[in-house]
Specification:
This protein has 248 residues and is α/β, with parallel strands linked by helices. The chain has a single domain (4-187, 220-244), classed as NAD(P)-binding Rossmann-like Domain (Rossmann fold), CATH 3.40.50. It has 8 helices and 7 strands. It has helices at residues 13-24, 37-49, 64-77, 102-127, 145-148, 155-175, 203-207, 219-230; strands at residues 4-7, 28-33, 54-58, 83-86, 136-141, 180-187, 241-244. Strands 3-2-1-4-5-6-7 form a 7-stranded parallel beta sheet, sandwiched between helices. Helix 2 (37-49) links the parallel strand 2 (28-33) and strand 3 (54-58). Helix 1 packs parallel to helix 2 and helix 3 (64-77) packs parallel to helix 4 (102-127). The longest helix is centred in the middle third of the chain and has 26 residues, at 102-127. It is globular.
Length: 248
C-alpha cells in the first residue's frame, strides 16, 4: 500500500522541506496551505519533478469543514492517510502580554492548537484500528519556545506550543493501542520566512552567536527528524520530542 502524507502548512519553510524529503522517500503527498497560491504551485511542481504523486489543498486547517474537505480529497486522489504532519501555525509581532488583544490570542490559539487537534481527529478516523484502519503516525511541529517561554516576545505563541506538547503526550497514550504513534519536533532557530510574521525577519541571524552550535538551522534538518519519526525506523517511539534548537 502506498504511503500517504498530509502536511499542513506545506507550501513553504519546514512544511515544504518535509514534502520534498517525503517525495524522495516515495510518499504520496498532500500539502495544505492557506494563502500563497504561487508558493504552493512552486512546491507542488518540485514534488512532481521528484516523481511524487502530489496535490495541494487551499484551506484553513483550523476550520473543520475545510479539514473534512482536505481529507476527502486525499481519500479520493491519493488513498488513506498514513502520516499527518501538523505543521501549520502562526505568530504575531513581538510584544508583552498586556499589549495583546483578545482577537490576537483567539486567532493564534485557534490556528496553533485547535487546528492540529481537528486535523488529528480526522486522520485518526482513517488510521485507527478501532475504525478499520491499519495505523499510522502523527508528527506535531512544536517549538523550543514551549520550553523557553519567549518572555517579552510572544508568550502567547510559546503557550500554544506548550499546549501542543501536552496534546502530543496525551494523544500518544490515547492511541498507543490503536497502531498510531504520536510524536513531536521542537524547532528553534530555523532560517525560514516564519520569523517575518513576528516583525523580525532577521531574528535567527541576530541570535546565531548566542547558540551553542553557532548557527541557525535549516528547514531540511527539521524535515529529517520529522521523516524519521514518521518512518518504521521509529516504530517503538511514541510520546517523544526531538529538539532542534542548536543546543539552546
Amino acid at each position: 500500500m502506498a504511503k500517504v502524507m498530509v502536511i499542513t502548512g506545506g507550501s513553504r519553510g519546514i512544511g515544504a522541506a518535509t514534502a520534498r524529503l517525503a517525495a524522495r522517500e516515495g510518499y504520496r503527498i498532500c500539502i495544505g496551505y492557506q494563502t500563497d497560491d504561487l508558493q504552493a504551485r512552486q512546491t507542488l511542481e518540485q514534488l512532481t519533478a521528484l516523481g511524487a504523486r502530489a496535490i495541494a489543498f487551499k484551506g484553513d486547517a483550523s476550520n473543520e469543514d475545510e479539514v473534512i474537505q482536505m481529507f476527502n480529497r486525499v481519500d479520493n486522489e491519493l488513498g488513506p492517510v498514513s502520516v499527518l504532519v501538523n505543521n501549520a501555525a502562526t505568530i504575531a509581532p513581538q510584544s508583552r502580554l498586556e499589549e495583546m488583544s483578545e482577537f490576537r490570542l483567539l486567532k493564534l490559539m485557534k490556528t496553533n492548537v485547535v487546528g492540529p487537534m481537528l486535523c488529528a481527529k480526522h486522520a485518526i478516523a482513517r488510521m485507527s484500528a478501532h475504525h478499520g484502519g491499519v495505523g499510522g503516525s502523527i508528527v506535531n511541529v512544536s517549538s523550543v519556545a514551549a520550553r523557553l517561554g519567549s518572555p517579552n516576545e510572544y508568550v502567547d505563541y510559546a503557550s500554544s506550543k506548550g499546549a501542543i506538547d501536552t496534546f502530543t503526550l496525551g494523544l500518544s497514550k490515547e492511541l498507543a493501542g490503536e497502531k498510531i504513534r504520536v510524536n513531536a519536533v521542537r524547532p528553534g532557530y530555523i532560517h525560514t520566512e516564519f520569523h517575518a510574521l513576528s516583525g523580525d525577519p532577521q531574528r535567527v541571524t541576530k541570535l546565531e552567536g548566542t547558540l551553542p552550535v553557532g548557527r541557525g538551522g535549516q528547514p531540511e534538518e527539521v524535515a529529517e527528524a520529522i521523516l524519521w519519526l514518521a518512518s518504521d525506523l521509529a516504530s517503538y517511539v511514541t510520546g517523544t520530542f526531538i529538539d532542534l534548537g542548536g543546543g539552546r
